Clr5 domain-containing protein
Amino acid sequence: MSGSDYYMYHPQEAGSAPLQGQTAVFRPSKPADWEPYRDAIAHYYITMNMKLKDVMPEMETTYFFKATEKQYKTQIKKWNLDTKYIKSSEYMFMIKTMRERKAQDSTKETRFILRGRVVDPKDIARFEKRAQRKGQMKEGEAVDAPEAEPVEDLVYGTPPPDEAYQTYDAEHDEYDDSAECMYSY
C-alpha cells in the first residue's frame, strides 16, 4: 500500500487486517456496504438516543467504519430511522388538536404519543412560543396552517391520573405498557 494511512477493511472479509502502523477504516462506497452496520447505527442513534455527531466517531472507533455526515443522513432516512425528532408540521397538528379539544372542554388536557414515544408537553409549548414569535400562529386562535395536517403514528388523548402516567422504566429507557390506565378519548 502506498503512503496512505487508511486500509479498506470490511468485517465480513476473512483474513483482512490492517498492516502494522496503519489505521483500519472502512469507507462505504455503495448502499450494500451499510447493511452490516445497520443494527449498530440504529442502536446508537435510536436506542441510546445519541446525536449523529456522536454516532459517527463511535462507529469509527468501535467498528472502524467512517462515512460523511451526508452519507449517514441519507442512510438514516432510507432506513426510516429519522423519526427521532419532531417535525414542524407534526407540532402544528398537535397544537391544532390541543386547541380544538380545549374549545370543546376547557378542562380537558391532551397528551400525545408520536412514533411510540410520549411527547413532552413542555416541548409543544416551547415550539408554540417560537411559532408565535415568528408570526406563524397567534395565541388562542385556531391553527389553519396547511402544514397542520393529520400525522401518521400519532396517538393522543386525555392523560390518566399522574401515578398511572408515570410508568417510565429508566433502566430500559421505555414506558411500561402493562399499566392498566391508558388514554381516554
In short: The CA atoms of residues 96 and 143 lie 5 Å apart.
